[in-house]
Amino acid sequence: MKKNKIKAIKIGFLIVCILPTISQALDKEDILKYLVKSSYPEVKVIDKEDNDKKDDEENLESTDNIKSNISNKDDEEYVNIYVGEENKPETNKEKESKATSNIIDSSYTNNLRITKNKPQILIYHTHSSETYSDSPKNNYHSTDIENSVMAVGSALSTELTEKGWGVVHSTKYNDLSYNEAYATSAKTVKSILSKYDSVKIAIDLHRDGQSLKSEQAKKTVHDKYTTEINGETVAKFFLVVGQRNQNVGELKRQAEEITALAEKKYPGLVCPVVTKQYGRFNQYMSENGLLIEIGNNATSTKEALATSKYVAEILDEYYSNIK
């Protein structure tokens, strides 16, 4: 009891005496960067000034990346984010209201589609505005849902449903305020799980981001991260594991086993598991939390959509015991 009182006094002293001093010394942007770093260590906040010193195109395309090329460099332990208006995905309210009829149809209500009672799988998108190479927008971030990772999520949910799974697919935009994407998606997941406690598997579906400095670079990346299955060109995929999750051992085991199964069934379709030392990526929120990257900004929507049926087959086989 005495220890708790001492702790409370210390916290009170910090709030009353120290925080006001810090607040006066920092501007709003500094405070935002501090809050982002303290709340979500899986992101690395980059100053606008530092960003300007680098190649503009490379930075624009890497704002959402969890790069699949594995390296020991500290920088690659983070997801890069940029504080400022320039990183907001481009929106067009008139276009958004027209609604992408092929993806968001009458089966979606309030940004959700539930394919069966007591669904076992949740598919959501922390970076909902990630788009593929054939999106009319050039920054690979927009509300062009037809050419986005959400279209792939819709296809994956359909494929899994056809295999007997109940699926909840969320098309809520969690990254319209990009720096708050993981905090926002955590609220999205918590809300859905509170309504559907039958969910056992939560999939945060992304598309990877690669540096594309030229047309030749785009071709090189495209060819590296696509393969051919049954005469069809499909995008490769991989899984990411955040090392800061309490159940990291189980998460890593599952990711490696799913990867091994994919490689056995479809050699060349899957890339090695990527682990991030400082990340959580909300994987702790579900018994089986997966972060899956399908394709990247050099692959097309069609190629990523084609991958969804193979990912569904692999996940169906792997998790068949909890169906």
UniProtKB/TrEMBL annotation:
Q: Does the keyword Cytoplasm apply?
A: no
Check the UniProt entry and state the signal peptide residues, or none: 1-25
UniProt superkingdom: Bacteria
Which keywords belong to this entry? Signal
Location of region: Disordered: 48-70
**Per its UniProt record, what InterPro entries does this chain match?**
Spore_II_P
Q: What is this protein called?
A: Stage II sporulation protein P
